């Protein structure tokens, strides 16, 4: 069969300036086709054309929401776009989406609790299920793996704090999911990872909260591209020494 590029599916691209987009760029440069899933169709289209102009191959799959059915529909569209019968294989998947509810406990509404659980946990279940079903159908690659599933975590994946009751419950849940999947599917040579991002990422939202000194100092914030390079490293790991949990922080982070 003709050799074709492996596919990376990224969920959560935001305004195309953060970790989701950086991962799309880094994997695209490394020879992956990229399926981009997120809610903002304009930013997906722009990122897909940027990647294509740079010599890659990317396609936007806009989501109406992170409801499980919307995620299943997006995977069905990916299969239509790049049919398995033509040798196309989803080999990597990144769940980067998060609903970040940051509020003191007594101000958290029922809707926000539901949003955190729906987006951070239920949607991640649906995404993982689709990715794992794809991986199970792949033969082993050169590294002896069928696929790599990565979750973007946060400090709140292991530590609750004064304004993170709703968010941390979602991120703890995501971590529990990733650990369970790593154990359940490890024997099938499906590599499941979780990355705790323990510090602020250089996104537009964080730029608005900090001054120019912060942005210029790479010791105090994480660069999305640096995180993306670590994700590529995970996908390229040998089967005899696999990470489950990666813990990333800038050099001068207090922890
Ligand atoms: N930024 C930080 O300082 C920081 C620090 C530690 C960990 N993280 C983690 O990093 C990941 C995000 O990466 P990023 O910060 O670099 O930004 P990014 O790649 O631009 O991604 C932003 C994500 O947030 C999603 N999002 C925001 N509000 C949402 C909501 N209410 N419901 C559903 N989705 C929502 C966006 O969804 P759409 O793409 O559909 O718009 C997108 O997936 C998250 O898992 C987050 O917990 C971020």
How would you describe this structure to a colleague?
This protein is of the alpha/beta class. It has a single domain (7-248), classed as Rossmann fold (3-Layer(aba) Sandwich), CATH 3.40.50. The chain has helices spanning 19-29, 41-53, 68-81, 110-136, 165-186, 204-209, 212-216, 224-235; strands at 7-11, 33-38, 57-62, 90-95, 147-152, 190-197, 245-248. Strands 3-2-1-4-5-6-7 form a seven-stranded parallel β-sheet, sandwiched between helices. The longest helix has 27 residues, at 110-136. The protein is globular and about 50 Å long. The mean pLDDT is 97. Bound molecules: NADP nicotinamide-adenine-dinucleotide phosphate. NADP nicotinamide-adenine-dinucleotide phosphate (NAP) binds at residues 12-15, 18-21, 38-40, 66, 96-100, 119, 152, 154, 197, 200-201, 203, 206, 224. NADP nicotinamide-adenine-dinucleotide phosphate binds at residues 12-15, 18-21, 38-40, 66, 96-100, 119, 152, 154, 197, 200-201, 203, 206, 224. It comes from Gloeophyllum trabeum (strain ATCC 11539 / FP-39264 / Madison 617). Pfam families: adh_short (PF00106).
